[in-house]
Here is the input.
Amino acid sequence: DESASTRCGVNGVSIAAAVARAIATIGMSAVFFQDPFGLVTFDGGFSQLGTIRPRTGKSHVVHCLDAYQENRGLQPVNRTADLSTTLSGYFRGTTMLPVVSDFLFDDTPRILRELTLLNAAHDVFLVMIDSAYAFELPPLSAGWIDTVDVETGRTRTISRSTAAGLAGKVRDWQDNVARAAGNAGLDVVRVGLDQRQSDIALSEFVSERRLRKTRN
Here is the structure.
C-alpha cells in the first residue's frame, strides 16, 4: 500500500514505515528459502498499480524496498476489468501474495471479494498494519477542528470529541475488516508499533506457511 495516507503518522513514525518493515521481513524470508521476490504497489482504490518483477537475492529485496520508499523504478501495470484478473495475468505461476496495508479503504468489501477470487489460484493473505496510533491526537483546546483527507483533498470540520474518538473508530474498522477477511477464507497477520514483536510474528507466519505449502 503506497496510498498517500500511509505517508502520515505521529512522532515521526509513518504507516509507510511499518509497511516497509513488513516488505523487508517477507523479502528476507524469501531470501532464506531462495525464492524469487517481487513487488506490486497500489493506491487507495487499487486503480494505479506499479511493479518490480520477481528476482532472487538480498540486493533485490533492498531494491524493492528503495522503490517502495522512494516511489521510483516501478513499472506500471495495465488494469483490466477487475483487480483479480489483472493480477492473475501478471503472475506466471502459483504465488504467495501477502497484501500489506492498513485496509482503510472506502470499498474494502469489494477489495476483499477480489482478493478472495485471487486466493482460489494463489496463496493470498493479509498483513494488516495497525494504524490507530496515527489517529491518537494530543489533547486539543479548540472545540472544532478542520481536517483534510490526503487521498481526496476533501475537507471536513469535526468536533473535539469526534477527533478524540478517531483512533477507536479505526480499531473497530480494522477489527471488522479482519473478521470479514477471515469469513472469506483469508488469513490475517496484524503488525503493530512493537517492531521486534511484529517482525518475529510475521517472519514465523510466512516461514510456517512456506514450509506447509512445500510439504503439501
The chain has a mean pLDDT of 88. The first strand starts at residue 9 and ends at 10.
